[in-house]
Design a protein that fits this description.
With about 180 residues, the protein is an all-alpha fold. Helix content is about 40%, strand content about 0%. It has two domains: about 120 residues, no CATH class; about 40 residues, no CATH class.
Length: about 180
């Protein structure tokens, strides 16, 4: 890329990260009982992981446990995705401390006695499809952000009032 080229703004959604987590597990292996298998010395750059560890690795590009995430946009994406996946696998309202609640729900689900790799991979991919079905406007914002907030999620939970959407109708809210 030339210095004069400006990279396109890419909106990373939980669906992207969930699919990346499934790919991470397919490529690097799946485990139970820990976020990552750090028992090998020297260990691989990308060790086998549980579902939660794979979500964090897919979001941040490195193997890091949810409880050790730094305060970065990638870490925020990891926490949002953990919450979304927790909501998919269990009746969970995605409120409260996303670090503890989302990670704990995902870890408990991942570590269930009869859970298999196929269960985990299928759930990650199905959750990604479900997220996109429930958030069709997430990547189809009707206009660029007039406030240049660059944190716009472009869905109904967006903090930028110009992009706020009403309930399930996905139409711009009227600023009253």
């Amino acid at each position: 890329m030339k210095a004069t080229h400006k990279p396109a703004d890419v909106q990373v959604t939980p669906a992207h990260i969930l699919r990346g987590a499934a790919r991470y597990l397919q490529t690097n292996g799946w485990i139970k009982g820990a976020f990552f298998d750090l028992s090998m010395d020297p260990g691989p750059a990308f060790p086998p992981a549980c579902a939660g560890g794979a979500i964090c690795a897919a979001a941040t590009g490195r193997p890091i446990a949810p409880t050790a995430l730094p305060v970065t946009p990638d870490a925020a994406n990891a926490l949002r995705t953990l919450a979304a996946f927790a909501g998919y696998i269990e009746d969970y309202d995605q409120t409260g401390d996303l670090t503890e609640i989302g990670a704990d729900i995902v870890a408990d689900w991942n570590d269930a006695d009869r859970r298999t790799f196929t269960d985990v991979k299928t759930a990650l991919l199905d959750a990604a499809d479900e997220w996109e079905r429930l958030h069709p406007a997430a990547t189809m914002c009707p206009a660029p952000c007039p406030l240049s907030c660059r944190s716009c999620t472009r869905d109904r939970d967006c903090e930028c009032y110009e992009h706020a959407y009403l309930a399930d109708e996905r139409v711009p809210a009227v600023n009253a």
